[in-house]
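Lab meeting prep.
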Amino acid sequence: MRVRAGIILVHDGKLALIERHRQGRHYFSFPGGGVDEDESPQETAIREAEEELGIHIKIQQKAAEVLFNGNVQHYFLVESFSGEFGTGTGEEYGEYDPVHGTYHPLWMPLADVLNNNVVPRGLAELVVRSEREGWAAEPVIIVEKK
């Protein structure tokens, strides 16, 4: 089983995402990555935000758990408190690798999220709904189909 942790960062009506071109696919994903053996999902989310986006974050709450192909993904609602968005220096920003594709951090207006290929889809729908209606106190469980 592979465990992943990611962030949900909304600012001024826009959602922080990573635009990806990989193996002939074009999609947008939530910033995050694999949980290392010696860290918690919260620590992973904080590390990945710095590596992928160049920002330091504070976790507000665990917002969702996504179950996909037997793997667990933890997503945290966060706020940024320092750093410059788009200055990530993670290994994915090194030399172009056709296997892993491209990584481009961007702000997508919430009004556009459901009109684009944002994955996981159930999480994208949860973010749009929760930003409009309010976030649940407990994490929402989302089961994604392939």
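Slide two material, second protein:
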Amino acid sequence: AVVAAVAAQWQAPGYCHGLDCPIFKELYNDPSANITYRQYQGAVWVRTNVTGISYKDALNEGFNKLFDYISGANDQGIKVDMTTPVNTQVLSGAGPFCASTFIVSFYAPYIYQQAGNPPPTPTDPTVYVQFVEETTKAVYGFGGYADKWQPWVDPSVYLYSYLEDQSPPVPLVTEYEWTNQYDSPFKPVHRHNEVWIDIEYS
């Protein structure tokens, strides 16, 4: 009920396009760098893990499994509303030709963020529902298509460098990062993507 109440009061950013999207509180904003720090509420996500060396292939495989889930591949056989963004946690492999793990996630609609009202259970055993604890993230947003890994490289390096260049440097997690796509692939302009890095900030 608390999440539902907060969601009712919360003004989602325009790039959520009226869809349910993760609730956060902005802690820091550097307009000149286009970087913010956000405290994200703990929330329920529907997720699937894909192992591979291609970001695009992993994203497509994960997306299709999650789309099947919201289309009715769940124990209630119901359609679940689409949310945004398509979130992918990237855990890099140990070497250049080692497989990485990509955890592709859909945010559960607000109705399922309430205690006692979990989302339907996936019928695909590789899809699972998980509560992700509250976190603080550094965020850098950018436009364009980012369905392959290359468009994420420069934004990621830029965000990491920004955090490390602060005085003192911002403590951060280097083992993984998060990519977020907010738009349909059929929207050609004014697209919004975000790199997230977990940080310690107070």
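Talking points for slide two:
The chain has a mean pLDDT of 93.
The beta strands are 24-30, 35-40, 43-52, 86-91, 100-107, 127-132, 135-142, 176-181, 193-198.
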